Each structure stands twice: as structure tokens, then as C-alpha cells.
Amino acid sequence: VWRLLQDLQVASAKLGRSRTVIKTLIIKAFAARAMGNMDDAASAIRDALALAAGQGWRRMFLEEGPAIVTLLDETLKHMQIASLNADAVTFLAEVFSANIDPDGLHRNDPS
Predict the structure, then answer these.
(1) Does residue 46 contact residue 83 with C-beta atoms inside 8 Å?
(2) CA 63 to chain CA centroid, nearest Å
């Protein structure tokens, strides 16, 4: 699974499909955490935040529902918050302060 996600991420990046790259990174973070590899989970989240923050694409995270809050919390405990740029920290605050829809629909979020 990891190899397929990696291939999808690389191919999407080459095609300029930033949203697909971000979504793939989020899935990679969930997969890495499930395998007990918090280093890879934190790295994937760091990369996803860096890409999404500049575009304000909160919805990609919010669609994951409450599980994303748990994943972000766990990965943030594993990494140094100082490793994130200011835009990513602001973006994280927006995601954490959002009213997370348990169904992950977020139809009212324009991002």
C-alpha cells in the first residue's frame, strides 16, 4: 500500500495536481500511524500542511472528520511545532478551531 501511495504522490506532483498530492499525504499519514511509524506519519502531515496552508485548502483535512484531529494531535506530539512554517501553524489553528462535521461533509467550507 505504501508503495502505491508513494507512486500516486510522485505522479500527481509531476502533473501539478496539488490537491491529489495533499490527499495522498493525508492518507499516507493515516497508514503510517496504523503501522506504528510516527516518523513517516509526521513527515506526511508536515508536507501536507506545507502544501495546503498556502492555498487555504482546509476542506481536504476537514473531510476526514474527527479522525483528522486525532491524527494531527498525535503527529504534532511527535514532531517539533517549530519545524512548521508560520502559514502551516496558522492553518493548523484554523483546522483545530473548525466545527468538525462527524460525517466529513463540510459543504459550507469554501476551501
Answers:
(1) yes
(2) 11
Q: Model confidence over 6-40: pLDDT tens digits?
A: 999 999 999 999 999 999 999 999 999 999 999 99
The x, y and z cell numbers of residue 35, run together, are 503501522
The set of cell numbers assigned to 50 is 506545507
pTM: 0.85
DSSP labels, 90-105 = HHHHHHHHS---TT--
CA distance 76 to 71: 8
Express the helix, strand and coil content of the chain in percent, nearest 5 each.
70, 0, 30
**Residues 77, 110, 59: CA angle, nearest 5 degrees:** 30
What count of residues does the chain have? Answer: 111
Dihedral sign of CA atoms 63, 97, 47, 80 in order: negative
